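Page 42, continued from yesterday. The earlier attempt failed because a stray header line got pasted into the input along with the sequence. Redoing it now with the clean sequence only.
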Amino acid sequence: MRLLVDAMCAEYGGIRTYVDHLLAQWSVVFPDDDVHVALRVGSTLTTGSATRHELPVRGPDVVGRPVAQTLGLPRLVERLRPDVVLATAPTTTVRRLAAPLCVVVLDLRHELRPEQFSRGRRLLRDVSYGRSYAIADGFIAISQRSLDDLHRLHPSTTSVPARVVHLGGDHVLSWPAPTRTGPSVGFAHHSNKNPDLLFEAWSLLRADPGGAPPLTLLGVGSTGRAAIAERVASLGLGGSVELAPFLPDADFHRVLAEAEMVVFPSDFEGFGLPVVEGMLLGKPVVLGPEPATTEVAGGHAAVAADWTPAALAGAVRRARATTETELSAARAWAAGFTWERTVRQTRDALAELVR
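This time it went through. Structure tokens are written below.
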């Protein structure tokens, strides 16, 4: 198979992890495939043995990247004659291509949680995603939740071939050996991670014997850091909660490997990589009642009954009482989320489009 991958959007976050491991594993599982990758000039993405095609992005990224994709991808298709094109995010070319186009659907948060996006970013996604949904020949959704949202909000897509392909998590097996000697870990790099609910639950946990457990909040950038610190102080959590910035990969791996538990009450996810990562590392995982993360957890996480601080605090208490037998069962479940499986299922979906 000759495959062209649009990885122009995969520079950071969960999509970066996805594309890095997808391409690296592809060259191992299907070494005879001729894989080409479109990415921006200077990208540090891991592309395995694939041929890289760097496209310049001129001007502000919010405009420059879609223009680069719309101009560059049709030219690459014309020159390379791929069997199929895989867009790793719905923000891709707005022009129809002379090859089947399969679009990866990550999530539809901008439609279902519009308040979490600026007006400009929401408008850009509405236009670019909507166009992708209209011209795609196939879809790969990273969870059943994302596919259900796509079909419900865009009924015309139900007539297009689609498949759910979960992400892998076995990259954590190369991280430092896991212990449970460190503080619990939460996240704050996007508003959907629900740090305020986390703080309110931690405030309730102060009344427990021994007080609230230590918590490190990851991803606290300079923007909004002062407000988060003020909120922590106002709840009297200064002695329990540490605000960590965005960490280099090695430090992030170490912190997660040492964590007592992973607390991830995100109110919206397409998949939720920390769920699989935490379970594979032998950590109790705490979730809110969110469809994608509970789908991924497969019944092996402590799930809050609702979106109240009391419910989340109760889930934390249950997680702290997790037995070794339960942790082993969670690890066994999470062990099925491999990047090899992701690659094989993705290629199967693409091969169907080619046929």
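Notes: The CA atoms of residues 151 and 158 lie 6 Å apart.
Reminder to self: strip header lines before submitting.
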